[in-house]
Structures are given as C-alpha cells and as structure tokens.
Write a structure and sequence with these properties.
The chain has helices at residues 4-12, 48-60, 70-90; strands at 24-32, 36-45, 67-68, 94-96, 103-111, 118-119, 126-136, 146-150, 156-163, 165-171, 173-181, 184-191, 196-203. By secondary structure, the protein is α+β, with helices and mostly antiparallel strands. The protein has one domain (4-203). The strands form three sheets. It has a seven-stranded mixed β-sheet. Strands 4-8-13-10 form a four-stranded antiparallel β-sheet, with no helix packed on it. Strand 1 (24-32) and strand 2 (36-45) form a beta hairpin. The longest helix is centred in the middle third of the chain and has 21 residues, at 70-90.
Length: 206
C-alpha cells in the first residue's frame, strides 16, 4: 500500500485533510512464517493532526456535533476494516518473484484508539493499529527467490524472516540494519522513496 495520502483515503477516511508531517508517524511490523505472514501498521497522530483527524471523523462519519461518541468510534472502526479489506482485494502488498498469485489475505483487523472519544478539540495523541494476516499456498522457501513489500515511502519497518532464512541482497531500503536472533533474520530500516522493498533470500545451510 503506497503513499500515505492514498492509504488514508482508502483506509482511514481522513486523507483529504491530513498529510505527512512531524505530527504523523507510520510504522510497519512484518513477521513471516513458512506458511504465511502478518503485517501490522501503527499510526500516531499528534499536534494539529489530532484535531484534523477528530473533526473529519465527526463531520463525515458522525453527526458533526463537535464530539466523538462510542457509536461514532464503532462506525469509524467498521469503515476502516471494510476499506482495508477492499483495498487488499484489489491489490495485495506482498509478492514473491513479482507475483502475489500464491498469497492470500486471510484476516483483517483494526484497533482504533479510544482516545479518539470526546471533544474534537482534545489534543491527546491518537495511536491506531491495523493488522493483516496472509496465508501462502506453498512453503515460504518454495514461493520464490525474492519477496517484495509494497509499503509507504519513508516509513519505518521491521521484518522478521522465517527461521533459517539468509538474506542475499535487498533493494529499496534506507538505513538498512540486519541481525540474527534465535536463528531468525530481522531486517529493519525505512522504505525508500519508491515505497517498494525487495529482499532476495535463500535457505541457510544447516
């Protein structure tokens, strides 16, 4: 999923009034197993973006009374889940050898922060999280020689590879860091300007 404005328009319903800034942070946590993977997204609003987020939700999802109530929060949560699932039906954001034909989005979930509740003038920090679980038709090591992640440009990520993976090469990463913990390779850094990471891998010799 690429470009924050497009992502928020599709998933968060506030893209038309918010933009990347020091008051907005987006983090990606990806965990791969041999039979599937999870990708969790965490967004944080602070400063002026908090008011923009609440006001847009109140006017476009709620009753525009300057207050976010429980039913409006539930409606926002439902809207986000549906749009996230709909966007993944159109195009998956993980591919092996450039194809997503053996990858399936299995489950979609969201946690909209309860701090959204209350007056739209509140300045509390908002932390929302979104989760997608994928399944693979084949074992990870049979899916291909490289895996790509279509993410948001210039956002932080951590990718935990399946046990036994050796990373051969990477593309599209800024500030790359690789470490091995309990025989699992962990790759971290930032998505580059294109928002596409490709990791070439092999199975480590025992």
């Amino acid at each position: 999923m690429r470009y924050i404005s497009t992502l928020l328009l599709a998933l968060l319903t506030v893209a038309m009034v918010t933009s990347p800034s020091s008051a907005f942070e987006w983090r990606n946590t990806i965990v791969l197993e041999e039979d599937g993977m999870s990708w969790s997204y965490e967004e944080e609003y602070s400063g002026e973006d908090v008011g923009v987020y609440r006001s847009y939700a109140d006017k476009n999802i709620g009753n525009n009374d300057g207050h976010i109530s429980a039913w409006e929060l539930m409606k926002l949560d439902h809207r986000v889940r549906n749009r996230l699932y709909g966007s993944l039906e159109k195009e998956l954001d993980v591919m092996f050898n450039g194809s997503a034909k053996n990858v399936h989005a299995f489950d979609v979930d969201a946690e909209i922060s309860r701090s959204v509740l209350g007056s739209t003038d509140k300045a509390d920090i908002i932390n929302n999280r979104y989760f997608v679980t994928y399944t693979f038709e084949k074992n990870f090591f049979e899916m291909g020689e490289n895996v790509s992640f279509d993410g948001e440009a210039n956002t932080d990520f951590t990718i935990t590879m399946p046990e036994g993976v050796e990373i051969i090469d990477t593309e599209g990463i800024n500030s790359r860091f690789i470490e091995t913990v309990d025989n699992r390779t962990i790759l971290s850094g930032r998505f580059g300007v294109e928002g596409l990471i490709t990791v070439e891998f092999s199975k480590r010799d025992v």
